[in-house]
Structures are given as structure tokens and as C-alpha cells.
Amino acid sequence: MTATRPAPTVLTGRFVRLEPFDADAHTDGLFAALAHPEVFAGGYGGGPAGLPADRPAFGEWVTGYGNAADARKFVVRLVGDSADEDAGSAGGTIVGASTLGDLDEHREEVHLGWTGYDPRVWGTAVNPETKLLLLGHAFAHGYGRVKIQADSANERSRAAILKLGATFEGVLRRDRVRADGTFSGTAVHSILIDEWPAVRAGLEQRLARHTAPVELADRS
What we know:
Elements: E1 11-12, E2 16-20, H1 23-34, H2 37-40, H3 55-64, E3 72-78, H4 82-85, E4 94-104, E5 109-117, H5 126-140, E6 145-151, H6 155-164, E7 167-177, E8 183-192, H7 196-208
Parallel strand pairs: 5-6
Antiparallel strand pairs: 1-2, 2-3, 3-4, 4-5, 6-8, 7-8
Helix pairs in contact: 1-3, 5-7
């Protein structure tokens, strides 16, 4: 099957809705969700030193992060939370962003990454359903290999990737420069098209344990 580059589109699940990134519509929501030290602590955005200092700096940063010409950047909104039910709102609460990048139709490869979430949705249905939607979107367009990677020191993210059902391929040593100038390794994982049915079944089984919409608690 020949891969075809997906057009920007909305992907909707039971718990999240993924919308193509729009700087004017989404930056304030992403600032509220992501501009926290714990989000950048594990390597997101280049690590702790990459956290923008304020809202204007965040706006400049987020417009470029994961938003290349060969990418499809999505904003993650909650479905069915109190904001989504408010007739005067623009939709559910924005809780993160993720990207299908490095789109290569000839090699039928894509990189699922540049992913960050509001800490208040860690451990909920948000990440597994976001991955279910994005993986399904990639494989439906003929891509045969989806790469997912993390800073080699980020044990939490590496465990989450393995929990998806991805295969660990190895660590690229001294592969990236963090925002503070230090070097990090990159732990590389992948899911192949032949593995997708089993991975999809595992994600659907995880999501079946969740029933109520995801609601955010007040920040402590």
C-alpha cells in the first residue's frame, strides 16, 4: 500500500478531540496546559531550560514546535468535560498537543512525537486515546512504520511508550542537544503496520476501563 500524506482534519474519540493546530485559536489554551516545569522536566521542548519565560515567549515557541511543513500538528481537547458542554465555549478544555511529523511517503514512515499534556491528565484516558487516534490515522494513510521516541533519561515516557505496545529499537547515544546545551540520548521505539491490530486491541481494552469524561481538578 502506498502512503499518502493526510490532509489536516479533526479526529474525534470518546474522551478527546484532536484539532489541527491554529495559533490564534489554540495558543492560550496550550499555554495554560503546558507551560509548567513538570511538563518540560522529562525532555519535552528541549528539557527544563526550554520552558518559555512568559506567554509571549510561549506563543513564539509553540508556533514552531512540531509544526514543520512535513508535519500534521494536533491540539488535544477533552470531549464531554464541563467546558465542552458550555454553549459559549470554543469546545472542550485544551490539555495538550501531539504531532505526526517527518512524513515520508516513499519509505512509508512517520514520527509520532512532540507530545505534551497538562499534568492533570497524566494517567487518564487522554494519552491512550490520543495515540489510538493518531496511530490509526497514520496506518489508514498507508504508513507502514510509526516511530515514537523519548529522551533516554525520561523513564516515565519510555514506560508509557512500551505500555502502548511499541517495540524498543535501541538508544541513539548523544543524539540531541537539550535547551541547556547538554546532550541526551534518544530511546527509539516503533510500531509496524502488521503489529497495529494487536496494539489497537490493547489500547481499546485500556480505554474500555474508562467510562466518565475526563475532568480536570483544580491545580494544587
